């Protein structure tokens, strides 16, 4: 696959990171696509099929009204007006499933529905806007192998982007590893601790314990 410019160019830092994590896979499923920027950017970067999935009526209208002339001819676009939990996908190994900007509970439910349908080698690019520990727990339960994880900062907000696949890989850790280690790690830790002040459930307690025990490792000068 080839492209003249880096995939996701012109999008914000979060969507760009998601596009880059999902590139070089022939079939893309953009689940919870809304604007469709991710799927369409990946089609422009060489994916041969892009599946846009979203049950919202407004999104349905937008995609159903899209004229053939508006869609680049270099790739095929399929629109599925349904929930990710209702999708039936072919059992092949050349697909990437992107799930971003939805809550963790929903993403965990979609993962549970999809993983038994697909083959080893399929990739997931996952970036929930909340309840990350729930998604991580479900990824562990389903035996997904972690490829990499990354923290993205955009407009004063933080986003974790996880890349995993069906098959062997590193175990997904309950609260993340690499996301705390970069330049923004300490700011993210403080941000999460502040957000946890309102929550008292078991998952939040676990994350709070993890974050309070975690000390920032500073380089020796
Ligand atoms: C905030 S948008 C995220 C758009 C894009 N993925 C992003 O990250 O910028 C969330 C979208 O998920 C869709 N959605 C909600 N529940 C869904 C489900 N169960 N399956 C698929 N899409 C869903 C909503 O209709 C909405 O368009």
Characterization of this structure:
- The chain is of the alpha/beta class.
- The protein has a single domain, classed as Vaccinia Virus protein VP39 (Rossmann fold).
- The chain contains seven helices and seven strands.
- α4 packs parallel to α5.
- It is globular.
- S-adenosylmethionine binds next to loops.
- S-adenosylmethionine (SAM) binds next to loops.
Features:
221 residues; alpha/beta; Rossmann fold; seven-stranded mixed beta sheet; globular; binds S-adenosylmethionine
**Small-molecule components bound:** S-adenosylmethionine
- The share of residues in extended strands comes to 15-25%
Counted up, domains total 1
Strand order of the largest sheet: 3-2-1-4-5-7-6
Averaged pLDDT, please? 90
Assigned CATH architecture: 3-Layer(aba) Sandwich
Major beta-sheet overview: 7 strands, mixed
Determine and state the CATH class.
Answer: Alpha Beta
Uncertain segments are none
Annotated CATH homologous superfamily = Vaccinia Virus protein VP39
Give the overall form.
globular
Total helical segments: 7
- The radius of gyration computed from the alpha-carbon positions, rounded to a whole number of angstroms, is 18 Å
Distance between the termini: 43 Å
The helicity comes to 25-40%
């Amino acid at each position: 696959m080839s492209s003249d410019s880096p995939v996701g160019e012109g999008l914000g830092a979060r969507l760009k990171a998601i596009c880059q994590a999902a590139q070089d896979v022939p079939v893309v499923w953009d689940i919870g696509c809304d604007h469709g920027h991710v799927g369409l950017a990946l089609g422009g970067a060489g994916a041969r099929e892009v599946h846009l999935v979203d049950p919202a009526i407004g999104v349905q209208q937008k995609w159903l009204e899209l004229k053939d002339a508006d869609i680049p001819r270099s790739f095929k676009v399929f629109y599925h007006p349904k929930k990710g939990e209702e999708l039936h996908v072919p059992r092949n190994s050349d697909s990437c499933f992107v799930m971003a900007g939805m809550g963790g509970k929903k993403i965990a439910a979609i993962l549970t529905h999809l993983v038994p349908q697909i083959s080893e080698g399929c990739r997931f690019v996952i970036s929930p806007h909340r309840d990350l520990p729930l998604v991580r727990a479900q990824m562990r339960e389903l035996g997904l192998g972690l490829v990499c994880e990354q923290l993205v900062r955009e407009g004063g907000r933080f986003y974790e982007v996880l890349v995993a696949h069906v098959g062997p890989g590193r175990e997904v850790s309950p609260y993340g590893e690499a996301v705390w280690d970069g330049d923004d790690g300490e700011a993210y830790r403080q941000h999460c601790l502040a957000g946890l002040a309102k929550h008292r459930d078991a998952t939040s307690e676990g994350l709070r314990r993890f974050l309070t025990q975690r000390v920032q490792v500073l380089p020796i000068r």
